[in-house]
Amino acid sequence: MTPQETFVTRLRRYRQRAGTSLEEIAADTRVKVDLFEALERNDLSGWPRGLYARAWIRAYASAVGLDPIDTVDEFCRLFTQGDRRVRPMIEEMAAIVAHPLEYRPEVTPDMDRRRSTPRINMLSDVAWHTALATRVVNACRAVRHRAASVLITTHPRKRQPRTSS
Asked: N or C: the chain end with fewer CB closer than 10 Å?
């Protein structure tokens, strides 16, 4: 069995275990039942690419009780319909206007972009809670200081008249 067939079989089994029909999923997602039947046959020739395909898989996964994020990520890895790269769309647009393609992708297709994400401006895993606590304390101090200054300026103390005895 190919990874694509395994993925589709897993979706179908979860749907059957949940007792959800394809008609119910189609009614909830407003997607034709035929497209979900084609998905379960591993035939995505009638499916759109990109955003819509990912949204339909996300909705299907939610309906059958799977984690939508993991399911969409696996779908994107296994099927070209879930491709998140923009090159095909830009190629089509360049062909429409008869312009040479000058697009260079930031992430090359051979890179595993989910595993090689650089950690830019990220806190270390150990000290994140310390930094968060410090920011919360500083924010609370700033709010308390502002509130005190507002109270002082809007409600000045009234002097009590001195009484002579």
From this structure: C
User: What's the pLDDT score for residue 143?
Assistant: 86
**Among the ranges given (5-14, 66-75, 82-91), the one the predictor scored with the smallest mean pLDDT:** 82-91
Contact 41, 23 (CB under 8 A): no
Whether the predicted pLDDT of 70 surpasses 70: yes
d(C-alpha 99, C-alpha 151), whole Å:
64
Q: How far apart are CA 103 and CA 142, in angstroms?
A: 47
The percent of residues in the chain predicted with pLDDT above 70, rounded, is: 71
Taking only Cα atoms into account, the Rg of the chain, rounded to an integer number of angstroms, comes to 28
* Contact call for residues 59 and 66 (beta carbons, < 8 A): no
Can you say how many angstroms the Cα of residue 127 is from the centroid of all Cα atoms in its chain? Answer: 26
- What is d(CA 116, CA 105) in angstroms, rounded to the nearest whole number? 16
